Amino acid sequence: MPGRSSRRKGHDFEREMVHRFAEVFGKDRVHRGMQFRDGAECADVVAPALHLECKRGARTNPRAALAQATEDSLGKGLWPVAVCKDDKEQAFIAMHLEDFLDLLREWWAARSR
Question: What is the tally of structural domains in the chain?
Answer without folding.
Answer: 1
